[in-house]
Amino acid sequence: MTNTLKDKVTELFSHHKIGTLATIRDNKPYSRFMMFNHDDLTLYTATNEHAHKAEDIAQNPNVHILLGYDRDSNHEHYVEIEAEASVEESAELKKKFWSEELKHWIASPEDPEYLLLKLNPVTILYYAKPGKEPQELTL
């Protein structure tokens, strides 16, 4: 069975939950580690409404994400994603993507300070291994 590029990317999303999210602040890139969930090729990540990234995205919704690569588990594949970020208002999705791991920042799915960021990919570069040329998935 041949996996399509989309299949490879969604499989990677399912196995790699922690990556970096870069925003632009004062015309400079700023990145931080985030926990990611996905629905097909759309990524979601939780934040507090008072976090700098929320301010950054309000000013400029263009973000960059790195996800994947785990040398210790032989998962050397990774993706670089250019995406457009927005705030997801759906209470159902906020509940679906909230987890106990978020309690340090967000008390519950009903926390009024909980923002769920929806990251709509524009371009995904899939690297099967470091040093290899990427395959591009344009959406």
Question: How does this model look, in words?
Answer:
The chain is an alpha+beta fold. It has one domain: Electron Transport, Fmn-binding Protein, Chain A (Pnp Oxidase, Chain A). Helix content is 19%, strand content 48%. It contains three helices and eight strands; from the N terminus they run αββββαββαββ. Strands 1, 2, 3, 4, 5, 6, 7 and 8 form an eight-stranded antiparallel beta sheet that branches. The model has no long low-confidence stretch (mean pLDDT 92). It comes from [Bacillus] enclensis. Residues 5-126 form the Pyridoxamine 5'-phosphate oxidase N-terminal domain. Pfam families: PNPOx_N (PF01243). This is General stress protein 26.
Sequence-ordered SSE layout with sheet pairings:
Blueprint: H1 5-15, E1 18-25, E2 28-35, E3 37-39, E4 42-48, H2 52-59, E5 62-70, E6 75-88, H3 91-97, E7 114-127, E8 135-138
Antiparallel strand pairs: 1-2, 1-5, 3-4, 4-7, 5-6, 6-7, 7-8
